[in-house]
Amino acid sequence: METTYEGDGGGEIIRPVNWNLLTAEEAEGEWLDLNAWVDWLRATYGLAVAVIPPLWHRHDELIWELSALHTAWLNAYDPEAPPAAPLAWHREFAEARIRLREWVATCGTKLDRDRPTRRAAWPGDGPPASPVEQPIEHRDADFNAFVVDDLAARRQLEDEARDAAHHRALDLLDRLGGAVDRSQWRFGRDLSTDL
Fold first, then answer.
1. Quick one: which of 62, 74, 76, 194 could link to 56 by a disulfide (CB 3.0–4.6 Å)?
2. pTM here?
3. What is the rounded CA–CA span in Å between residue 114 and residue 134?
4. DSSP character string of 123-172
5. Cα(173)–Cα(195) distance, integer angstroms
6. What 8-state DSSP symbol labels residue 188?
């Protein structure tokens, strides 16, 4: 197993990743970078499955925790960081391992099987769905399929948002009457056939 990691800091300012706001293009790079770093982290520190399970990527709570830890690591080991930054990161890492163990115990994922994290039902939600355990056949294949699905969902949302914005603009032009030439409006793709 390779125990080196070359992050993609690239001299840019490293900011926290908000997974809710990433485009498909941004998410692809973030997923690949985070996956490589998590693999490096678990190999380098000999972390147990109770801390980082194979299908961490299928659990939002683990994604957010590991992503925050990754960002902190990138900042701590930046060439411009103060000399004590790596020690501060290791303190944060010790605290994060406690939280990761709690998350893993709560979500119920294991070395050879996984299930969706149980969600508590609030009043009015109806009965919670019973998560079904699935065997883990091939971790890397599952990660790749997960990323493909995530990117497709993001692209669909991007397309829907672009189409909605285009149609709102066309509605506005219609309300303005003939004051603006509609053929001059372009929103990433030609929707003139929709008119």
1. 62
2. 0.79
3. 5
4. TTS-SPP-PPPEE-S-HHHHHHHHHHHHHHHHHHHHHHHHHHHHHHHHHH
5. 12
6. S
